[in-house]
Amino acid sequence: MASTTQQQHLSDASASEPRHRPGGAIELAPYSANWPAEFQNESATIRRALAGTPITLHHIGSTSIPGIVAKPVIDMLGVVPAIRDIDDRERQLAEIGYEGLGEFGISGRRCFRKTAADGARTHHLHVFAKGSEAIDRHLDFRDYLRAFPAEAAAYAELKQKLAAQFTGEDYSEGKTEFIRAIEQRAAAWREGIVRGPVEVQAPRRTRVLQLVLFWLLVASIPVVLLWLSTAST
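The structure corresponding to this sequence follows.
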């Protein structure tokens, strides 16, 4: 946990950074080295509030990807043994400033958001039960963009273009196609099917099939040559 001096430094730095106010223009902030520490501080606050409830917290979203612009809102992924574990502790989260939104459009999720006194959104918490496919999806997306900066830069460029044109839902919808494509590549990368954005390694089953077809072709050559020889006589 950060010391009092470190927390004061983060508070002072955050005050000088852009703030995200829902409903207004999309204001993207340059990557801040403070964001990982802000996640660590907030995750410690959440764990204290949920003392006795097993929860694993991950930093996700654009603020977790070094070098890219983001809305200055810390997104967190919470993993609990069962979703009732978080349902039973909603009051404790409310006491530290989190508004519960239920599934908020995604089955199996519990979504919470935290807003500062000045109306700026500061944190999102997305909680899923262990085993949910959404957990891998979020972590794969983050880890893939961390591993491949060129892909992360392309995502940042898209966000800047959209932010200059749209607000709210239109901005989010504009990112959907790109995000889905990255999620597919990221899942394949985790499984070892692809090694990166360009270099592709066929799945084992495909490679075996290709090898079988190759040897069938080789084995058929004498038969074809014999047929051609017979046909010419």
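Confidence is low (pLDDT under 50) at residues 1-14, 199-207.
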